[in-house]
Structures
1.
Amino acid sequence: MSSIRPVYMGPRLRRLRRERGLTQANMATDLDISASYVALLERNQRPLTADMLLRLARTYKLDMAEIAGDGGAEFTARLQAVLKDPMFADIDLPPLEAADVATSYPGITEALLRLYTAYQEEQLALADRGDEIRAGASRDPEAPDPVAEARRFLAARRNSFPVLDDAAERLAQIVSGQNGFIGHLKARFNLRVRRLPSDVMVGSVRRLDLHHDEVLLDDSLDAASQTFQLAQQLAYLEMGDEIDAVLKEGSFATESGERLTRRALASYAAAALIMPYTAFARAVEARHYDVEALARQFGTSFEQTVHRLTTLQKPGQQRVPFFFIRVDPAGNVSKRLDGAGFPFARHGGACPLWSVHQAFRTPREIVTQWLELPDGQRFFSIARTVTAGGGHFGSQRIERAIALGCAAEHAHHLIYTRGQTETGPENATPIGVTCRLCHRPQCAARSAPPIGRQVLPDDFRRPSAPFGFSDG
C-alpha cells in the first residue's frame, strides 16, 4: 500500500490559478489534463495527488511548501475577525463553525468578506458626509473628496494588504541576492541609479528616465528616504499587477481619489520590500515594539517604521493593532491610519490635551501618555516630532509630530510601558475625539461647545470652562 495519501486542496488551487491570471482551460493545458478535471479539483471533488503536486511545482516554478500551505487558515482567520464586529454580538457564532464555512465554502466566504469590506467603506462615507453637514462645510457636501476616498479605502481594510505583503516578501528575497535595490534595478531592468542636485531635479525627489535607462534621485534625501524611493519605484515596476488588483476592490468617485489610493498602495508595497512581513513581525516581538531600535535594524526612518507597525494585521500572523496620526504645529492632520479602532475626528483637529500636540516642545524625544475617551475606552500612545525636507543649507524643513497608539489591553507588549511606576491606565488623560463631539463639561481646553448642547448665559454665573452648556 502506498504511503503517499491524496489530499483535497481545491480553494488553494483556485487561488494559485487566479494569482497567475489563468483560466481553468489555461491551467489544464499547462498541466496536460482536461479543464473539467481542473474544475473537479477546485471543487474538492477529486484529490490532488502527489503526481499532480509535482506537476504544479515544475510547471509554475513553485516551492512545494507554497502549494501545500494551509490557504484555508487565512480565510478562517479573516472570517473570524469579521464576525467579531459588534453588529454580530447577539448571534452565537462558534469559531469552529466559522472554520467549517471558510474551509467548505470558500466562495461564499470570499463573497461575505467582500460585502463586509464594502459595508465598512459605506459606513465611513456616511460618517464623512454627516460630519461635513454638521460642521457646515462651505463646499457642497455631496462633492467627492479624493483624500477622504483614499482614507476610507485604507480604513475599511485596516491598512492591511496581505497580497502585497506576500508579493513583496518574495521579491525582497530576490533583491537581497542581487546587492540590494540598485543591483536588482540594473540586473532586472538595466536601470542605473543616479543622484543629482535638487536644482537639477526641478522639484522632483525621484524620476524614472526611460530614455536614458536611469532612476534619478534628489541627492539631498537622507539614506532612509533614498532607499524608500528606490523601493517605491521597484514596486511600480514589479508589483503593478498586485497593486492594481487590490485597487479594483474599491469604488472611486474621482480619478484623483483612485490615484491617491494607488500611491498609498505603492508606498505600502515599498515598506513591505524594506521591512518584509515575516522578518519585521519577528523583530517587533524581539524588540518589544521599540521604534528606534527597529528603525536602526532595518535602516528606516522613525516615521517609516511607525507606518509599518500599523500594517501588521495579516490573518494568522497579527501583531499589536496600532493607530497613527501626523499633525503640523497648526494642528492640521496630514495623515491618519487606523488599525486599532480609534475614533479619529474626520474634520478639524484632534484634542489639544493629547501629547501629540505637545511633542513640539521637546523635539525628537518620545513622549508617552495614557488616554481615556468619554465612553471609557483607554489607549496608550507615544508621540515624537519628525522632520521632512532639509538636506542642504537654505532648504525648507517641515516639522511635524506623529503619534502611534494602541488599545490599553495591548500596551503591556510595548517597551514604553515597562518600569512605569507613577503612571498607568488608571491615570489616563481624559481626551475627546474633537471638541464638537466631546461632552465633558469641565474641560478648560475646549474650543467649541459640543453639537446638540445649548450654551448657557453667563449673566449671573461664569463657569471656569470656556463654555457652560445645559445637561439635556
2.
Amino acid sequence: MNQPNIVIVDYGVGNTYSVMNAIKALGYRKIKVSAFETDIAAAEALILPGVGAFEACAQNLRERHLDTILNEVVLVKKKPILGICVGMQLMSTMSEENGEHSGLNWIPGRVVRLDPSVNYAVPHVGWNDIKGLQSDMLFSRITEFANFYFDHSYHYQCEESYVIAHCDYGMKVTAAIARENIYGVQFHPEKSQNNGLKLLRSFFNAVDLC
C-alpha cells in the first residue's frame, strides 16, 4: 500500500489525536498533526477536525492564519480535504451559532440550529443511520442505512447538489457534503467503529493515494 502524506490540521480545538489513531489503525504511517504552513502545503490529503463552538473554531483558524494556507492548497492546488463535525461546518458561508460568524465559504451554505420534532433532544448525541448515495466514493464500502456517531446541535443547510448523505432526526439533517476535492461529514468517523474506518479508507483510496 502506498503511504500518502496525510496532515491533520491542528488549530487548537479539534479531536486531532483520536482522528490520527483511527487513521493509523488502517495502516497509514505518514501522518502528522500540524499547524505549520509547510506541512499543510506538502500534504497529499488533509483532515480538518473540529469540536466545540463554531465561533471559537473559526477564530482559532484565522488567528493562526491557517485559513490562508488552506484556501491555497484546497481551492487552488485542489488537495483533497475531509472536514469532520465542526470541521465540516467551517466549510460553510456562515454559522448562526451564538450570533453570525463567517466560515471558509468553500461550499455555500449556512449552519443553523437543529429544530427537530418535540420527541428529539438537542444536542443530537448518539448513533444514527444515514442514507447515502452509493455512487459517491465516501460510501463505496458502506451499506445503505449504516450508522455513525453524531454529537452536534447545529447542522449544515446547503443546496441538495452538495449533499451526499443525510440522516433523519425528527427532520432531515445533512450528514455529508462534497464539492470537487472538498468533503465533509457531520458525524465522527473516528468514533464510528468499523463504518467510520471504512469511510476513512474510502476517502484515501478514492483520491488515488493508495
3.
Amino acid sequence: MSDGGVDTGRRRFLTAATVAVGGAGAAFAAYPFLAAWQPSARAEAAGAPVEVDLSKLEPGDMLRVEWRGKPIYVVNRSTPMLERLDEHRDQLRDPDSSAPQQPAYAENPYRSREPEVLVLVGLCTHLGCSPSYRPEVAPADLGPQWAGGFFCPCHGSRFDLAGRVYQGVPAPLNMAVPPYRYLSDNVILVGEDEGAA
C-alpha cells in the first residue's frame, strides 16, 4: 500500500516537536500557579524561631520579642519574685495550669523550663490585648494585694508572675507558654522544642 507521497519521518518529527513545545508551554503556565502555593519569604521569616539572648537580662527585667506576629515576654524572675508565687494560689483560677496552654516541660508551678526564666505569649486570654508587666508589689493603682505580675489595661485582667490568671477577671485562661528550648546557658530559641526538626 502506498503512503501517497507522505514523508512519515517528517510527520513524526513535527508531532514530537509540537508535543515538546506544548509540554514546555504547559510547564511555564503551571509554574506561577504552583509557586503561589509556597509561603513568601516574609511569611517564612514571620514563623521562624527567634533567638533570645538572656545575658543582659537582669533579675526582675523583662524583654519583649516577636514570634509569628505575637509579642513574646521573657522575664528573668528574681528570688523574691519566685518566693511570692505560692502566696496567692487560692486567688488563682487555674493555679496548677490544668488547661493545656503550655508544653509538658512547663507544667510546673513556675510554668517554665528553669524557675528564673519565664517565657510567655504576651497576649491576654480575654480579647488578645497585651498586658503590661507590673513587677512592683502593692502599687497604689493595683492595690495592696498585688504581688507583681501582668495587668491587662483593656478590661482589667490580672496574671501573676507565672502568667496564671486570677479569679474574678474577664480572662478565662492563663497566658500561653510558647514552645522554646535552650541553645546555651544564655540563649533560648522561641518557637521550637527539642523534638522539632
4.
Amino acid sequence: MPSEPEPIAVLNAGSSSLKFSFFQGASVVCKGLVDRLGSAQSGARAAIRDADGASLFEGPVPARNHEQALAWLLDWLRQTRLALSPAAVGHRVVHGGDEFSAPARVTPEVLDRLESLVPLAPLHQPHNLAPIRYLARQFPQLPQVVCFDTAFHATQTRIERTYA
C-alpha cells in the first residue's frame, strides 16, 4: 500500500493578508486566508475551508502580522483533525529582479538578494519575505521555494521589459 504524500504548503503573503493552500500530492487538503493583518481596529480574521469548500474555521485570530498569522495557522493545523505539518513550502514573491527568472530554493544568500530588491516593490516585497524568514528561523531544515511574479517577463527582450 503506497504511503500518502507529505503535505506541501503554498503561501501568498500580501500587504494585509496571508493566503494559503495545503496539498497532499495533487489534492487540495485545505485553503484559506488570514486577513486584516496590521489593522488595529478590526483585528485579524481567518477563513479556512476544506477541499469541498466546507468551513473548517471562521473567526478572529490573535495575529497582528504575517509571522504571527503563520504561527497561528501552523499551530491550528497541527491541533485539528487534519494534523498537518508541511514537508515543504512554496511562496509567491512579487519581485525577483533580473537575477531570478525561475523558481529558486531559499538559502540565506537567496533571501539576502531578495531583501535587496525591497526598494523595487516596497509595498509587497517585505510582506512576501516575512513568512520565509519566520519559517527559516523556526524550521531551518524545512525546504522552501520562491516563485516570482516578475518571472513572467523573463522571456521578453530587455527593451520590452524596460518600455511599456
